[in-house]
Amino acid sequence: MREAFDELLACLGPSGCLIGPDVPEASRTDESRTGRTLPAALLRPADVDAVSQALAICHRHRLRVVPQGGMTGLAGGANALAGEVALSLARFHGVEAVDAQAATMCVRAGTVLAVAQEAAAEAGFVFPIDYGSRGSCQIGGLVATNGGGPRVIRYGTTRANVLGLEVVLADGTVLSHLGGQLKDNTGYDLKSLFVGSEGTLGVVTRAVFRLWPKPGETYTALCALPDARAATALLAAARSAVTLSAFEALWPAYYDIGCLLAKTRPFAATPAVCILIEAEQPLEALLETAFEDGLVEDALMARSYADARAFWAVREAAGLDDALPGLMNFDVSIELQAMPAFVDGLTAAIENVFPGTRSLFFGHMGDGNLHLILHRDEMDAPTAHALDELVYERVRGEGGSVSAEHGIGTLKREWLGFSRSPAEIRTMQAIKSALDPHEIMNPGKLLTSCQS
Amino acid sequence: MREAFDELLACLGPSGCLIGPDVPEASRTDESRTGRTLPAALLRPADVDAVSQALAICHRHRLRVVPQGGMTGLAGGANALAGEVALSLARFHGVEAVDAQAATMCVRAGTVLAVAQEAAAEAGFVFPIDYGSRGSCQIGGLVATNGGGPRVIRYGTTRANVLGLEVVLADGTVLSHLGGQLKDNTGYDLKSLFVGSEGTLGVVTRAVFRLWPKPGETYTALCALPDARAATALLAAARSAVTLSAFEALWPAYYDIGCLLAKTRPFAATPAVCILIEAEQPLEALLETAFEDGLVEDALMARSYADARAFWAVREAAGLDDALPGLMNFDVSIELQAMPAFVDGLTAAIENVFPGTRSLFFGHMGDGNLHLILHRDEMDAPTAHALDELVYERVRGEGGSVSAEHGIGTLKREWLGFSRSPAEIRTMQAIKSALDPHEIMNPGKLLTSCQS
């Protein structure tokens, strides 16, 4: 290892290779707060060439590499094990180019999402991806985890918006395909394979994103609904009436804590289901009809940007991690029609088996994406595992996805087989082995070791 | 081989396994009309299980398999070599389910595109993909080649619209992921890898497609423009004013032959560039401003469905293959800003080096996708190759794609390296070897043999 570190130091310089005690504490864990070990070193290459050289050195020495972005992931995918080195692209940042005519943008992996969003806005466009950690998450991590968020309903996932990608493979080979063509049928879609591969196939260095025209006006409303079935009906009605840019559902327990944290309470009485709608057309007519049809019991229109921000603040519930320490975070996909019964059934089952557990449901309902937060005053490991099993068994029963957005990392690896067949997992392992035969790229994340 | 055929016959029955003289002539060649050899057998499994069993037999016997759909491809990707067997899913057809609430549809591979489109329309939706061969191309081929067409500007490519996929691998393993979740971060995006893999990684059996709401009204206009630079400016203006569902460019030679074949001539004088716009909002205001700005010299609004059909008939130029026998078909992506100069420069170069060659340019300009048809009264193989080289060298010079829509097949295999780096091609070969180690799946298509 000493020899490898000497080579890395020579290659990256002292500011590009922090070893042992110099590795900052921030490299220990992502937002899942489950990282136990500080990486043996933190590599900070400042350009693509340096990434390539550093990986070639690691490859030769069989040094395992954990790519780290803004450390905002929730699945443990960026946490290192003993003897592994972390690789950060924080020094390789910035928007390289905005092509206004083609409506594309080339961004470096170390760029913070908010910076890319601002550059897109300055050029008169919308950057397609947005979520709560925009101020610290990095483009490389966003690509590696196929970031989602509330705008997927309007612009699609990260994968759908990456038109070109540059990745460095385990052995240092640079795969660069940054042309950004909308249509390109020259062989396998390598970029889609790397988007969402959680750093297990290579290190993302640059990406070309599709940009979207700015919507003329945005209309936001918060609605109180009699039940979740009404919400699915409202969604269908909204889809055919307006262009939705968000359709977020908040079940009662989540609404209450969201209000508490946001220090605002739009509806005094807690709705059975609260829906935040954002659209590019006025919502009055839609909601009037919905009211007459009994789908909506009450609705508040945002009359100002401040109103809209207040609605979103309830939905975002910033500070939840601190308010409910040790909470468990779930992020599943459930077929829309099955979602109301799924929430009711799961709430009852949790209360039955683990009384005293708080179940907070919310989610990007328009995408079939449900989030669940579980909290107990005392959450020991066996209980947490049993809760995982209870939730994921029900997701499997619905043919849903155990990870809609957050990825598998280490925390959901045990449950991957609930959404993917053995044949699919074997196929993923075959691809992993083909591209990273010595398993140096983020080993043990997403997949169990292929060598074991 | 006899033994393999006996097993295949026993497995698939006489109607599921046509051998030697029973193989229909239609299995010889796709629309590129370059197929020389009739397959040794045509396998016609009637369900997924039969596909799996048939491939397992072929795999055991190292029998090479060429998947065939509607034989409408233009790259030779479905043509067999001596001793290879073809596999058709024509007997496994039909729409399995339309989920109106989730706006998805599960379709079998042997389904003709037009059938899927009609089923979507009956359920109140638009099927996202459309192109000229809709009456005979099949869903399996559409998925395997990542079909494009004029609607990509509105709904995206096939890959962007496939939410779930079932594929049978070379050894008969069934990979089924038909949940159709919009958001699913449970590991590698295997489906995107198979979409566009041209039958080299497995056989597509079923796919779940995203459906789209029917647009309220469609507005169509045909415009005469002073030059191609005006067209790129008009495109930018149109994008911010309306929701485009087509933006098609016809250069003069193509316009003239399109009129001839369609037996209509909307503009008596041939425009320098003719643009067909289709949008979901009225076009009058946009075109009025464009007229004032000198971007448009004349414009015709479709006042009826018949008008719109006539405009499209000029664009589609049905019968072109017969009118210009032996024509060469190009399908490239070029950065929008570079497109006007690219067309002018290429036209001049062709006229200079190969006088007497007719160059017909048209394309899905909104996607940066340019089609070119070349025709000479006498087109011998060396001339055709020299023309290929001339065109693709210029595409390479622009950093474009040598295949935007049609795929690589055999006809563009030599030019793949003009759009993809050696590292990318090696990575594709590594994936191919991992999933099809004996190279029985459509060998020699897209990639040269990995074993050679």
From TrEMBL, chains A, B:
* 4Fe-4S as UniProt keyword: no
Q: Which UniProt keywords apply?
A: FAD, Flavoprotein, Oxidoreductase
UniProt domain FAD-binding PCMH-type: residue ranges? 35-214
Look up the record and name the cofactor or cofactors this protein needs: FAD
Which InterPro entries does the entry link to? FAD-bd_oxidored_4_C, FAD-bd_PCMH, FAD-bd_PCMH-like_sf, FAD-bd_PCMH_sub1, FAD-bd_PCMH_sub2, FAD-linked_Oxase-like_C, FAD-oxidored/transferase_4, Oxid_FAD_bind_N
Q: Which family is annotated?
A: Belongs to the FAD-binding oxidoreductase/transferase type 4 family.
Q: What is this protein called?
A: FAD/FMN-containing dehydrogenase
